[in-house]
Amino acid sequence: MKLSGSTVVLTGASSGIGAEAARKLARLGATVCLLARREDELERVRADIEASGGVAHTYVVDLSDADATAAVAARLLHEHPRIDALVNNAGRSIRRSISDSLERVHDYERTMAINYFGAVRLTLALLPRFVEQGYGHVVISSSLSTQVPIPLFSAYLASKSALESFTRSLTAELGHQGVTSTVVYFPMVRTEMSTATPIYQAMPMLSADKAANWLVKAVVDQPTRVTSIPGAMGELGMAMLPGVITKASQPLFRRMDKRLARRSED
Ligand SMILES: NC(=O)c1ccc[n+]([C@@H]2O[C@H](COP(=O)([O-])OP(=O)(O)OC[C@H]3O[C@@H](n4cnc5c(N)ncnc54)[C@H](OP(=O)(O)O)[C@@H]3O)[C@@H](O)[C@H]2O)c1
Predict the structure, then answer these.
(1) pTM of this prediction exceeds 0.90
(2) Which of 51, 140, 223, 240 is deepest in the core (most CB within 10 A)?
C-alpha cells in the first residue's frame, strides 16, 4: 500500500508500539487517526507528528465501552471519506496463573473486552466502508505466545487467539471484495505493558521503535502474518509434534522464570 495520501486508523496510539508506529506511518505520508483513552499522551504523539510535518487526528475513547466505540467509529467515518487501514493494536495483558484465577473470571472478561470485543466492534463498524471502497486492510497486534504454549497468560492469550481467528475469517469471507488482514506476532517488546512485570526487567526484548516497524510492514506490504523466526518454528513444531513440544516446553519455562527472578533481584 502507498502510504502517501492514505488514512490509517491506529488504536493504542498513546504509548509503546502504537505511538512509535503512528510516528513512522505519518512520516511515510499517512494521515493517522490515533485512538486511546489517555488524552495527554495522544496529544503528545499528535504534536510530535505535526512538528515533523505529518497529519494526525486524536480520538479519546475507551474501546472496551460499546457505545463509546460506536460513537468514535461514526466520527471516523464522518470525518474521513477514505480509510485505507485499521490497526487493532490497543490491548491489555494480565500475567496470572490459572490456579490463581479461580475466583477471577473478571480477568478473562477484562482482556476479552479490550483485546477482542473492542477490536471486533471497531472492525465491524468500518467494514461497510472497506467493502464500499473495494479495499481495506486490517492489522492486529498479537503475540508470539499464541504460537507456542506459554504459561501464566491464559486470559490474555485466549483473547488474542480469538482475535486472530476473527481476523482470518475476515479475509476468508471478504478477501475477494478487497478486505485483507495481517496478524503480527510480536515477541516481548520493552513498553509500559511488559515493564509492569518486574521479573521481565532482566529479559532481552525488542525496542518499541523496532516493533513499530513490524506494524508499518503489516500496513505497507500486507502479508498474511509478520512473525519472528522462533515464532514460526514454534508454529511448525506445534503442527508436527504438539505433544512433544507442549511437554518439553513446561520445564523450560519454569527454569526461565526462576532465572529471570534471580537476575531481577541482583
Ligand atoms: N509489549 C509486549 O511485549 C507485547 C508483546 C506481544 C504483543 N503486544 C501487543 O502489542 C500491543 C501494544 O502494546 P504495547 O506493548 O505497546 O503496550 P502499551 O504501551 O501498554 O500500549 C497499550 C495501548 O493500548 C491502549 N489501550 C489499553 N486499553 C485501552 C482501552 N480500553 N481503550 C482504548 N485504548 C486502550 C493504551 O492506551 P490508553 O491507556 O491511553 O487507553 C495504549 O496506547 C498490545 O495489543 C499488546 O497486547 C505487546
Answers:
(1) yes
(2) 140
Is 156 one of the annotated active-site residues of the chain?
A: yes
- For residues 32-68, one letter each, b for 16 or more C-beta atoms within 10 angstroms of the residue's C-beta and e for the rest, the string is bbbbbbeeebbeebbeebeeeebebbbbbbbbbbeeb
Q: Is 38 in the pocket of ligand 1 (CB under 6 A)?
A: yes
> Of the listed 59, 116, 135, 156, which one is catalytic?
156
Cell triple for residue 77? Answer: 467515518
Tens of pLDDT, residues 25-39: 999 999 999 999 999
* Closest to 52 (Cα-Cα) out of 18, 83, 22: 22
Look up the CATH architecture of domain 7-265.
3-Layer(aba) Sandwich (3.40)
* Ligand 1 near 210 CB (within 6 A): no
Q: Is 30 in the pocket of ligand 1 (CB under 6 A)?
A: no
